[in-house]
Task: inverse folding
């Protein structure tokens, strides 16, 4: 008997009809002789609606209280799915994050899982029940409810799959799998049958958010076999696995883009050790994730440092950056919001020179100016103007024959 | 420095405007130098909406899962009120039932509080915070979420007031207090300044549900001073206290009525010891509360037994009654639903003979037939046809010069 973890996102449980559809999929997995743990998100736009309510009563709601508010959404879906399963003759029980033993740190709204104690889940599975877990949430050492940030239910599912040693973690979503580019932008984008953890991690980080980056990290660390698939169709989706086990590594697997990008620049930063640390430690302390970092060439013993963060984090980053600017004696700051990131990703890239050059040429041929460049072993990213993103993605999709 | 527990019902927190109004009342209590614990219900009709959702996916949803679903409503209100208070400059923290240390038995959907461990609440109060507790809920010994039944937030508030030794427990509601009769039915019904626990208990049990009966029991046992008052007006409401401390005891304080009444009759029940036990133990085992019980005079060594339950419980009672009927060898059963209960309540009644006779005369003068009668030291109740209830209440209100 196998063990399967299934995760259903908000659109898959948006109303009671869809919840019944989910229950049918859960039961068919169980009928194949597998134990099933299901992780659910909040129904449809409920999380956004709750956030809107909170902003009606408080302009700057405390993170702890937001977590109290938002964790109710997943708890509701979990209870409703368990009720549906029971009414269809399938024994089921719903559990909150803390009942599932999901322990996190105390950083509200973006907590990290520190440990999972799956005793209760195992006990319920052993009694022949399907266990429905409220995704996206856990409990802090202080006994407070925490959430794992946007897309956190993916992380819940993969982490549970890891600790329960599940055979597979199926992530059901409203897309058919991972594509060579966003099908809404590139008409002939095609579905990938398989991607490596590394590729998926880059794709996820780059805004092709079919899977939360932290979930991919977790899967990679614990070698959890993950499949991204449609909750509305029966076809298989995209399998995420170790690159070594893949039959052939494509040079470029896909083109990703991200419009949630803001740029911050610090001018005339003194050229001495510890400066970068001062800048980025202050941001880390404020829990702001920095993505790309570019340091320009030395000029009169002073540097310019530029980096990108998500647009969402910009309001919180501004006071931190201004303070650091004064502290380190930089001459000034600048911010940019109308930006986008376009990236090519492929695990075969590292053994194929000239990939970056092909990318830059394709963008240049379209007359698109590159503002920042960042590379890793399996991806190249460029920051460009937001209104050029559609042309950029299509040009790159064509240039690499995807 | 005093300690005040405030409870706000669903209509008082029905939308964000009203939640702000609640926050204002909380803050003014705190400004008087008191520590404040606030207990909230779910927003407006949310509980009913969640129940409707559950019934869309399952005709007979498991009680445990209903509790998982419904506890989210109070958690949302608590978080939103805490956010509102914080944004108005008042430090506040919201707690779920289990975070507040409210331990219950395992009877889902109608759990009873077994113990309260208020350590977390005291800790937060000592830090100068207003503590907002999600009402209506607790945690079972198995670690499952439980609810206390309809109106359970009242019980949460009174139980917290008892364990925290609060100076007063203010129950804010959408009525001005306890009235001599339902003002919607009797035009000149007047507000009572004070009622005894006993009177309130009878009134609450009799359908004048401004306060959950279990909450009144709790208040009586622990001598908690309770005030029922309007959340929309500033006037004082009705104080519920010990009869001994009241200045004068009225013969009849009020007329109560209840339309949530169903009658069950068992015919030709054998006249031997243990029969009543067999009938009512079976109902108790099914968690069905029996209200009035009438056993008719003996006839050929066989009796008829009739009793009333709430209409809501009738579907669950039917199979139990049919089974008991066969087991004890009764000749048959009958059920009635178009019924109502009308009652007069007053703690001075026990020392005033003739009160019941006045009641029966008033009903007879209106041509209203009495189907069942039940009396206690401080009340007389009659079961009549539902469509005669309005005339009955008005006649009694006049007969006792209320």
Result:
């Amino acid at each position: 008997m196998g063990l399967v973890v299934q995760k259903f996102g908000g659109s898959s449980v948006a109303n009671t009809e869809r919840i019944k559809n989910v229950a049918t999929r859960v039961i068919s997995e169980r009928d194949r002789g597998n134990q099933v743990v299901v992780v659910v998100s909040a129904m449809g736009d409920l999380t956004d609606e709750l956030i809107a309510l909170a902003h009606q009563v408080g302009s700057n709601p405390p993170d702890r209280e937001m977590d109290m508010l938002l964790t109710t959404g997943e708890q509701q879906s979990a209870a409703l799915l368990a009720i549906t399963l029971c009414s269809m003759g399938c024994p089921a029980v719903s559990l909150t994050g803390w009942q599932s033993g999901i322990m996190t740190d105390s950083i509200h709204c973006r907590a990290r899982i520190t440990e999972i104690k799956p005793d209760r889940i195992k006990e319920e599975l052993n009694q022949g029940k399907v266990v429905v877990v409220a995704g996206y949430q856990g409990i802090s050492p202080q006994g407070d409810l925490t959430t794992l940030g946007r897309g956190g239910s993916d992380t819940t599912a993969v982490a549970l799959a890891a600790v329960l040693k599940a055979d597979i973690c199926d992530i059901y979503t409203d897309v058919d799998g991972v594509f060579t580019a966003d099908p809404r932008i590139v008409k002939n984008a095609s579905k990938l049958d398989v991607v490596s953890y590394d590729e998926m991690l880059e794709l996820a980080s780059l805004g092709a958010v079919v899977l939360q980056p932290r979930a991919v990290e977790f899967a990679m660390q614990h070698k959890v076999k993950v499949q991204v698939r449609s909750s509305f169709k029966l076809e298989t989706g995209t399998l995420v696995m170790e690159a070594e086990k893949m039959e052939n590594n494509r040079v470029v697997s896909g083109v990703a883009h991200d419009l949630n990008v803001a740029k911050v620049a610090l001018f005339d930063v003194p050229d001495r050790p510890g400066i970068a640390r001062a800048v980025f430690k202050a941001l880390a302390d404020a829990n702001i994730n920095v993505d790309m970092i570019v340091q320009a060439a030395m000029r009169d013993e002073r540097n310019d440092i530029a980096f990108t963060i998500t647009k969402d984090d910009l309001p919180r980053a501004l006071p931190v950056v201004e303070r650091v600017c004064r502290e380190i004696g930089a001459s000034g700051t600048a911010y940019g919001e109308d930006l986008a990131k376009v990236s090519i990703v492929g695990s075969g890239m590292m053994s194929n020179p000239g990939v970056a050059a092909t990318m830059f040429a394709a963008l240049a041929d379209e007359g698109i100016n590159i503002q920042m460049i960042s590379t890793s072993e399996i991806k190249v990213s460029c920051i460009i103007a937001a209104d050029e993103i559609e042309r950029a993605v299509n040009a790159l999709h064509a240039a690499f024959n995807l």
In short: The mean pLDDT of chain B is 90. Chain B has eleven helices and 18 strands. Chain B has two domains: 3-174, 256-399.
